[in-house]
């Protein structure tokens, strides 16, 4: 009885039309706007041919320079977020009270949103904020402390909003690794460092590269904190600001689309590079043998 | 570590765990045991009896709450696992999924800083020993359960440990492979001439493999003896039940001369054997194994009338449930029977074991 109802539908079955609504939604919400953006990016406002917007972007220092500015923020932010989450998640890998408390504390910045975090940071790290007052009050650092309205302000904000995300991902990957493996390595003569280096780390690479890819995409698209905490006219004029200016200050949608597509292309390039790196490692289940 | 050791000694080893309610529970207490080089020891007991805790204490994966462990004159319970150098085979094998068979087996040697060519040579000879040649470059995920098991054994023995610890290594294998691997593990044990400590809940496994069996229950040792002793003369009722003495009946002691006791219950008289002292008790528990019953000859003592109630066909013999004046008994007999058959059963006096405990 049940075997009959479980047989696979033959090809050309009419039921395959049931996928149509999903395809329509995808087309309407994702594919069409994307294609539209690609098309208008090749129709420059002032004429000049198919690639004019792109060649303008790559020949104008104030435009292509935003790529470097963004990379200089996104790459360190990604490395800090993922790099920091590994030891913290490793220390908290066993389900414990400490793990629950830290996890709860770290989820809060995710729920607050960038603007609120930026506002709090201005109060805390600003020239007259608590943090500089603390440093100077205790004579720890006597020069002027400048942690807002520059590169550092944006980087700190990217860590505050990005670290919890990277940490939660890493924690779930680490707790998925069978702890018996480390115990087995211990009985074979591996001390704690070798257990981490030879067992946990290689099994964690696929998960970490996924966390790094997501963290990078998130950081590369930085926009509100680059304006609120950075110096949007210069040192933190990231690529999304350039796209915003093109679209909403110069009303040049073609140029804005071109910048957005360059931005997406760079993100894709880095993510592909990360995944290519990941392929060099084992990526099967992180448990031992048959359960 | 020291490979020419003569003796591994556990001295009153115990381990307590804290419970959620704040009190502590002894998972293992007072385990004292001398293990000679070349011996195969089985720790046998139902789940939760503390046998795996004992093994983890030996491996250094669990610290002791009391007692000490000595390898000859070296105290080792204070050393971390990586400095004890015992080989351990885990229940789920714990093979490193990202390493080839060769790297898994060579891991312990690599940790010891052995030279590359030396590692290659010893890995190969360990793989030869477990008959896994030709699989060196596969990942554990590409092997069958039995092959993974062999890799786990090879990985534990390649470091030439003084003691090999095995935690229910066969429980994930199918019945046929399990029987084959028993012989295999015995063969490897004999070739290596080291001590093996083997944890299992399977009596047959323990009886067929071990030189000595340590029967455990709720954290404490019940009996230490050869398979023949544990099987034939369980020290107490718990061990008897665990070793397959399925029939436990209360009897009254009529007379006792040394070990020989005359027993009575509902006008049935049996001669039996007292295990340990009966403390002059009148009421004793009597344990009888289904396999020890046979069809009685005419006029034979230690006999009882029975009616077959149900039967489980088992090939060479059948397990019968029979109704008697002693209540329902299980007996295992060769031959053909049907429910309702009337038979007369006999059991030798040395197979009727009396314990000073209540059934």
UniProtKB/TrEMBL annotation, chain A:
Compartments where found: Cell membrane
Record domain ABC transmembrane type-1: where: 67-274
Top-rank lineage group of the source organism: Bacteria
Record Gene3D superfamilies: MetI-like
SUPFAM superfamilies: MetI-like
Keyword annotations of the record: Cell membrane, Membrane, Transmembrane, Transmembrane helix, Transport
Membrane topology qualifier: Multi-pass membrane protein
Protein's UniProt keywords contain Aminoacyl-tRNA synthetase: no
Membrane-spanning ranges: 16-35, 73-92, 104-131, 151-177, 198-223, 253-277
Record-stated family: Belongs to the binding-protein-dependent transport system permease family. CysTW subfamily.
Protein name according to UniProt: Sugar ABC transporter permease
UniProtKB/TrEMBL annotation, chain B:
SMART domains: AAA
Domain (ABC transporter) ranges: 8-243
UniProt keyword list: ATP-binding, Cell membrane, Membrane, Nucleotide-binding, Transport
Gene3D superfamilies reported in the protein's UniProt record: 2.40.50.100, Nucleic acid-binding proteins, P-loop containing nucleotide triphosphate hydrolases
Pfam family, one: TOBE_2
InterPro entries per record: AAA+_ATPase, ABC_transporter-like_ATP-bd, ABC_transporter-like_CS, ABC_transpr_MalK/UgpC-like, Mo/tungstate-bd_C_term_dom, NA-bd_OB-fold, P-loop_NTPase, Transp-assoc_OB_typ2
Molecular function GO terms recorded: ATP binding
Protein name, per record: ABC transporter ATP-binding protein
Species of the source: Castellaniella daejeonensis
């Amino acid at each position: 009885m049940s075997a009959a109802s479980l047989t696979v539908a033959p090809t050309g079955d009419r039921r395959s039309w049931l996928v149509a609504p999903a395809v329509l939604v995808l087309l309407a919400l994702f594919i069409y706007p994307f294609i539209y953006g690609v098309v208008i990016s090749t129709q420059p406002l002032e004429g000049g041919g198919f690639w004019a917007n792109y060649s303008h972007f790559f020949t104008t220092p104030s435009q292509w320079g935003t790529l470097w500015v963004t990379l200089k923020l996104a790459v360190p932010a990604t490395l800090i977020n993922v790099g920091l989450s590994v030891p913290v998640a490793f220390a908290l890998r066993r389900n414990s009270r400490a793990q629950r408390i830290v996890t709860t504390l770290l989820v809060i910045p995710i729920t607050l949103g960038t603007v609120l975090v930026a506002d709090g940071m201005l109060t805390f790290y600003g020239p007259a904020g608590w943090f500089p007052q603390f440093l100077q009050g205790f004579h720890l650092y006597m020069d002027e402390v400048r942690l807002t309205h520059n590169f550092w302000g944006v980087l700190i904000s990217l860590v505050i909003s990005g670290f919890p995300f990277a940490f939660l991902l890493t924690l779930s990957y680490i707790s998925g690794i069978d702890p018996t493996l480390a115990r087995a390595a211990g009985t074979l003569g591996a001390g704690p460092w070798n257990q981490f280096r030879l067992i946990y780390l290689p099994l964690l690479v696929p998960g970490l590269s996924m966390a790094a890819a997501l963290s990078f995409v998130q950081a590369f698209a930085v926009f509100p904190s680059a304006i609120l905490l950075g110096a949007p006219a210069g040192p933190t004029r990231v690529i999304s600001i350039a796209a915003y200016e093109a679209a909403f200050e110069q009303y040049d949608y073609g140029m804005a689309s071109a910048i957005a597509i360059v931005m997406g292309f760079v993100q894709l390039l880095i993510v592909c590079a990360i995944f290519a790196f990941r392929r060099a490692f084992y990526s099967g289940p992180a448990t031992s043998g048959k359960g | 570590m020291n490979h020419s050791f003569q003796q591994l000694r556990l001295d009153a080893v115990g381990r307590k765990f804290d419970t959620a309610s704040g009190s502590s529970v002894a998972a293992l207490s007072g385990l004292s045991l001398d293990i000679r080089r070349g011996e195969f020891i089985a720790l046998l007991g139902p789940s939760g009896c503390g046998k795996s805790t004992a093994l983890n204490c030996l491996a250094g994966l669990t610290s002791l709450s009391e007692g000490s462990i000595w390898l000859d004159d070296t105290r080792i319970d204070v050393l971390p696992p990586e400095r004890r150098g015992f080989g351990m085979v885990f229940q789920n094998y714990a093979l490193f999924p990202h390493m080839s068979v060769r790297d898994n087996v060579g891991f312990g040697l690599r940790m010891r800083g052995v030279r590359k060519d030396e590692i290659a040579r010893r890995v190969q000879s360990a793989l030869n020993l477990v008959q896994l040649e030709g699989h060196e470059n596969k990942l554990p995920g590409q092997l069958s359960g039995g092959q993974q098991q062999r890799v786990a054994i090879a990985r534990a023995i390649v470091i030439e440990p003084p003691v090999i610890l095995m935690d229910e290594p066969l429980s994930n294998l199918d019945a046929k492979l399990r029987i084959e691997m028993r012989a295999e593990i015995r063969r490897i044990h004999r070739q290596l001439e080291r001590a093996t400590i083997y944890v299992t809940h399977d009596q047959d496994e323990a009886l067929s493999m071990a030189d000595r069996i340590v029967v455990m229950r709720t954290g404490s040792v019940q009996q230490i003896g050869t398979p023949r002793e544990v099987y034939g003369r369980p020290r107490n009722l718990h061990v008897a039940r665990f070793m397959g003495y399925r029939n436990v009946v209360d009897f009254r002691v009529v007379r006792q001369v040394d070990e020989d006791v005359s027993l009575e219950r509902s006008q049935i008289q049996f001669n039996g054997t007292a295990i340990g002292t009966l403390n002059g008790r009148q009421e004793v528990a009597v344990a009888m194994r289904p396999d020890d019953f046979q069809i009685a000859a005419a006029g034979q003592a230690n006999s009882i009338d029975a009616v077959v109630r149900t039967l489980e066909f088992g090939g060479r013999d059948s397990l019968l449930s029979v109704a008697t004046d002693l209540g329902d008994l299980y007996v295992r007999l060769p031959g053909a029977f049907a429910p309702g058959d009337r038979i007369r059963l006999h059991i030798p006096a040395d197979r009727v074991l009396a314990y000073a405990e209540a059934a």
